[in-house]
């Protein structure tokens, strides 16, 4: 069975030594009193919970999966899941980053994000039950009426109830404008909702007393397409005015998907048969309201792959130090043993370092981005709020797609380190690979994230937000311009920044001629910009490591070695990506459809 050690020192390095988050958070009124000790203590306790309670039920949960009782429509999660969920509630973990007005602990989203990285390492499938609840909480917090907030937020905050997002239907996933679920207004102000949703994560389970489904549906007179979608709260059990549970509502699980990974998370076909719902926000403006939940979920999905990358790396390193096969090409490194440990072989190191670099780059990018989320909500300066919001919007598709693509590569490499044993269930490595694969698909496929980045977030405002972020990178390059030791990081970063500017302009011009050019280049483009953000954060991490290397703490030597590996072995991928992005539309469209 795989093991997991919470990477607390790595988190503290990013939070306190690289990003100085306490200084930044203290500027936000709700966090004026925050300090590093509080953050560290919460993460230490959270790490224990993840390693001791959640990780031990990951492998068994994958094997057992969820069971649907077709007569009652109830779903049972694997052994230990319910008890673990109760421990999670009792520990107050659900309330970490929730509003004190509803019983929350009022900590920054950033702390929750770090806690969730550890939960995801421990058990992605289990983590999706409470994970979706937080998105539902945020959506209702932003768009619910006072009445809805009063009824639903306290119980989502304390974890007594969980939440879901019900968007996808059999005939539509990416293109939600096609959805057909109907909502008919009733005389009492509620709606009767009828339709079929599929692939609904955590759609049914026995972990919580009630499940709060956030459902997209159409009013009878709604315009066609995405401008005719409204959002509704549809609870599993209706909720009485005093907050107590009423009758079972007409929404139930009619089937469970059998799938490649995350077996222990229930992926449900949900039937709505005249289910009672109340509208959230304005009629026909449901998609915009739902985006609060979707954006939270996109950051959450990036975090899932960060968690899997970290845990796969930890186990692959332990295995590579232990497994003896062949001698090093340059002569025995463990002459007293029958063979050398495989960690002496360059390519095994390449696989391990790739996973390590992808985890460290992702952790820095995630922390920086979620700090922008905290600023966008909690700053008392409107300009700062707007700037943070724009940066958050820019970086969200990068987090979702770049980190999950990397997570797939990293978990696959870590499985490879195990040789044939990696393919065997009991080692746990093949589960990490299977679990990582869905992260590239749901919450908007990675192709859709790329279109969002290049089409909307970059070209959509003539590159203004990207330029602003680029200015931060340029300021750092300028600051370090005369620092000899930093040149190995600064020069390639500056070079890539120039290339991204040129590529963006070139693609913008091509898109004027033919919008399909965006579709032809977007995936490569996102990966190039993803690397640019990683290179920036690796350079910042290297700066701190160089300053502290003299302390003799080997931690900083390891940080420098990882940064050097990243710049030498991973970043150069951008050269071929820029070429393929430039190769444009023609090679993709030349072939007639009939010839496929
Ligand atoms: C395990 C699991 C859990 C899920 N959980 C949830 C959940 O909790 N709630 C929920 O509502 N949904 C959920 N989903 C659904 C998921 O979000 C969708 O599957 C996903 O958004 C893709 O939609 P689709 O499957 O309909 O694929 P399609 O939209 O049919 O896409 C098929 C392919 O076409 C590509 N494509 C589509 N349009 C374009 C375009 N314009 N340009 C380029 N390429 C394009 C896509 O990238 C994809 O590769 C889940 C799915 C799974 C498998």
From TrEMBL:
<dbReference type="InterPro" id="IPR046373">
    <property type="entry name" value="Acyl-CoA_Oxase/DH_mid-dom_sf"/>
</dbReference>
<comment type="function">
    <text>Involved in the assimilation of dimethylsulphoniopropionate (DMSP), an important compound in the fixation of carbon in marine phytoplankton, by mediating the conversion of 3-(methylthio)propanoyl-CoA (MMPA-CoA) to 3-(methylthio)acryloyl-CoA (MTA-CoA).</text>
</comment>
<feature type="domain" description="Acyl-CoA oxidase/dehydrogenase middle">
    <location>
        <begin position="165"/>
        <end position="273"/>
    </location>
</feature>
<dbReference type="InterPro" id="IPR009100">
    <property type="entry name" value="AcylCoA_DH/oxidase_NM_dom_sf"/>
</dbReference>
<dbReference type="InterPro" id="IPR009075">
    <property type="entry name" value="AcylCo_DH/oxidase_C"/>
</dbReference>
<dbReference type="InterPro" id="IPR052166">
    <property type="entry name" value="Diverse_Acyl-CoA_DH"/>
</dbReference>
<dbReference type="InterPro" id="IPR013786">
    <property type="entry name" value="AcylCoA_DH/ox_N"/>
</dbReference>
<dbReference type="Pfam" id="PF00441">
    <property type="entry name" value="Acyl-CoA_dh_1"/>
</dbReference>
<dbReference type="InterPro" id="IPR006091">
    <property type="entry name" value="Acyl-CoA_Oxase/DH_mid-dom"/>
</dbReference>
<dbReference type="GO" id="GO:0050660">
    <property type="term" value="F:flavin adenine dinucleotide binding"/>
</dbReference>
<comment type="similarity">
    <text>Belongs to the acyl-CoA dehydrogenase family.</text>
</comment>
<dbReference type="InterPro" id="IPR036250">
    <property type="entry name" value="AcylCo_DH-like_C"/>
</dbReference>
<dbReference type="InterPro" id="IPR037069">
    <property type="entry name" value="AcylCoA_DH/ox_N_sf"/>
</dbReference>
<feature type="domain" description="Acetyl-CoA dehydrogenase-like C-terminal">
    <location>
        <begin position="471"/>
        <end position="592"/>
    </location>
</feature>
<dbReference type="InterPro" id="IPR025878">
    <property type="entry name" value="Acyl-CoA_dh-like_C_dom"/>
</dbReference>
<keyword id="KW-0274">FAD</keyword>
<keyword id="KW-0285">Flavoprotein</keyword>
<keyword id="KW-0560">Oxidoreductase</keyword>
<dbReference type="Pfam" id="PF12806">
    <property type="entry name" value="Acyl-CoA_dh_C"/>
</dbReference>
<protein>
    <recommendedName>
        <fullName>3-methylmercaptopropionyl-CoA dehydrogenase</fullName>
        <ecNumber>1.3.99.41</ecNumber>
    </recommendedName>
</protein>
<dbReference type="Pfam" id="PF02770">
    <property type="entry name" value="Acyl-CoA_dh_M"/>
</dbReference>
<dbReference type="GO" id="GO:0016627">
    <property type="term" value="F:oxidoreductase activity, acting on the CH-CH group of donors"/>
</dbReference>
<dbReference type="Pfam" id="PF02771">
    <property type="entry name" value="Acyl-CoA_dh_N"/>
</dbReference>
<feature type="domain" description="Acyl-CoA dehydrogenase/oxidase C-terminal">
    <location>
        <begin position="284"/>
        <end position="451"/>
    </location>
</feature>
<feature type="domain" description="Acyl-CoA dehydrogenase/oxidase N-terminal">
    <location>
        <begin position="48"/>
        <end position="159"/>
    </location>
</feature>
């Amino acid at each position: 069975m795989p093991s997991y050690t919470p990477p607390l020192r790595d988190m503290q390095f990013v939070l306190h030594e690289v990003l100085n988050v306490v200084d930044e958070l203290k500027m936000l009124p709700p966090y004026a009193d925050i300090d590093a000790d509080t953050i560290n203590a919460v993460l230490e306790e959270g790490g224990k919970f993840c390693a001791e309670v959640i990780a031990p039920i990951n492998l068994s949960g994958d094997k057992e999966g969820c069971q649907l009782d077709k007569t009652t429509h109830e779903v049972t999660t694997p052994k230990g899941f319910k008890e673990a969920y109760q421990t999670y509630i009792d520990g107050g973990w659900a309330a970490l980053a929730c509003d004190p007005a509803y019983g929350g602990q009022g900590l920054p989203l950033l702390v929750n994000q770090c806690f969730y990285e550890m939960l995801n390492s421990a058990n992605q499938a289990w983590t999706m039950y409470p994970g979706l609840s937080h998105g539902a909480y945020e959506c209702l917090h932003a768009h619910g009426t006072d009445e809805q907030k009063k009824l639903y937020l306290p119980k989502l905050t304390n974890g007594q109830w969980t939440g879901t997002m019900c968007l996808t239907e059999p005939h539509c996933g990416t293109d939600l404008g096609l959805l057909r679920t109907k909502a008919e207004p009733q005389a009492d102000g509620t709606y009767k909702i009828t339709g079929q949703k599929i692939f609904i994560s955590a759609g049914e389970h026995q972990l919580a007393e009630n499940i709060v489904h956030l459902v997209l549906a159409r009013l009878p007179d709604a315009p066609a397409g995405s401008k005719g979608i409204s959002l509704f709260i549809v609870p599993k059990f209706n909720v009485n005015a005093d907050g107590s549970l009423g009758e079972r509502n007409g929404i139930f699980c009619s089937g469970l998907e059998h799938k490649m990974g995350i077996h222990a998370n229930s992926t449900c076909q949900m039937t709505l048969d005249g289910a009672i719902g109340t509208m959230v926000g304005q009629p026909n403006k449901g998609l915009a309201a739902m985006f609060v939940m979707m954006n939270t979920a996109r950051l959450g999905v990036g975090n899932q792959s960060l968690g899997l990358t970290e845990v796969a790396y930890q186990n692959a390193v332990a295995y590579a130090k232990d497994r003896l096969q062949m001698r090093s090409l340059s002569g025995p490194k463990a002459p007293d043993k029958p063979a050398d440990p495989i960690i002496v072989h360059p390519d095994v190191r390449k696989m391990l370092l790739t996973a390590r670099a992808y985890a460290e780059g992702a952790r820095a990018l995630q922390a920086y981005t979620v700090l922008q989320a905290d600023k966008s909500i909690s700053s008392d300066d409107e300009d700062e709020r707007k700037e943070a919001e724009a940066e958050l919007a820019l970086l969200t598709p990068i987090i979702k797609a770049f980190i999950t693509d990397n997570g797939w590569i990293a978990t696959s490499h870590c499985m490879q380190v195990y040789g044939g044993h990696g393919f065997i269930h009991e080692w746990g490595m093949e589960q990490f690979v299977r679990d990582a694969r869905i992260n590239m698909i749901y919450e908007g496929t990675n192709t859709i994230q790329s279109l969002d980045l290049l089409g909307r977030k970059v070209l959509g405002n003539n590159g203004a937000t990207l330029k602003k972020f680029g200015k931060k990178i340029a300021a750092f390059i300028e600051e370090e311009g005369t620092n000899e030791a930093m040149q190995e990081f600064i020069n390639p970063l500056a070079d890539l920044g120039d290339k991204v500017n040129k590529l963006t302009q070139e693609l913008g011009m091509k898109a004027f001629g033919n919008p399909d050019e965006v579709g032809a280049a977007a995936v490569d483009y996102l990966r190039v910009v993803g690397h640019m953000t990683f290179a920036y954060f690796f350079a910042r991490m290297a700066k701190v490591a160089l300053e502290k290397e003299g302390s003799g703490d080997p931690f900083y030597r390891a940080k420098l070695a990882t940064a050097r590996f990243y710049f030498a072995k991973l970043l150069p991928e951008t050269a071929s990506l820029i070429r393929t992005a430039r190769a444009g539309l023609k090679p993709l469209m030349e072939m007639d459809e009939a010839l496929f």
